[in-house]
Amino acid sequence: MKTRVTELLGIEFPIIQAGMIWCSGWELASAVSNAGGLGLIGSGSMYPDILRIHIQKCKKATSKPFGVNVPLLYPDIDKHMQIIVEEKVPIVFTSAGNPKTWTPYLKEHGIKVVHVVSAVKFALKCVEAGVDAVVAEGFEAGGHNGREETTTMVLIPAVRDAISIPLIAAGGIANGRQMAAAFALGAEAVQVGSRFVASLESSAHPAFKETVVKAKEGDTQLTLKQLTPVRLIKNKFFKEVDEMEKRGASVEELAAHLGRGRAKKGMFEGDLDEGELEIGQVSGLINDILPAAEIVKNIMREFYDTLEKMKNFSKTIP
User: Fold this and answer.
1) What does the pLDDT look like over 21-71, one tens digit per residue?
2) Any long-range contacts for 113-122 (C-beta under 8 Å, 24+ apart)?
3) Which residue, 128, 168, 172, 317, is the most exposed by fewest CB within 10 angstroms?
4) Fold annotation for 4-204+288-310
5) What predicted TM-score, i.e. pTM, was given to this entire model?
């Protein structure tokens, strides 16, 4: 299948695996790339030397394009960017920061740059910064999210109308029907996170994967809006934060309770009570843990089936 995004990234299918902290190491990234999508190593949870190891292992595991997701708020970002250039990573997805800061540097070294946004105003800044494509991520998404709480259904067409460069949809997309809907809204590819958390190759703890599979509609909620908004499964830690926010806790109190390493504790170490369990609303539609290649195949099959069903609707206009 050809779109501007598949042509830009050199991939077979317009499916990008999100670069999720603690869940997307080289095994998942290489598996998705080998299946015809684009795998991303999530560097936000990695020290620089660990990132280099993951990049090198990914190179050995796949001959197809892969990339690295870099949150721009990462404290050692200069070291990450240096490693990415030295290791000749072909594609970088940036997020959580100003795209003007690193886009010129990366493009000078022949790297394609895609930036993740949650609002039209940020998409326009991406165009000014010279990025190659934009990921518009709706409120449904897991992990850190936009303060505007704009849903994917609203955000994608709004961004599509505002920019002319390639557009990737994210937030609440885990199957082919949702992918078809995103394309109808103006996207040329989709970025999928939560569905790949529940994959065999994901580096998430098995207990977290099982929790994702068991999640139902309404089991996640956006919280910590005074710090950095993040969508979490409603576990013991979430309930503590929710109670603090309802009684008007200060930013300092919330930050102290959050502490350090909450996401690692929950998603990587499997502490289902005290850890942050970051996942999207679409977890309510995920019912099994599958190989990444099978996930890609299932999404594409359902995507094409959905397009075929759409052809059967009557063309009569009242």
Assistant:
1) 899 999 999 999 999 999 999 998 899 999 999 999 999 999 999 999 999
2) 114/67, 114/168, 116/170, 116/191, 117/146, 117/159, 118/145, 118/146, 118/147, 118/148, 118/150, 118/155, 119/146, 119/148, 119/150, 119/155, 120/155, 120/158, 120/159, 120/162
3) 317
4) TIM Barrel (3.20.20)
5) 0.94
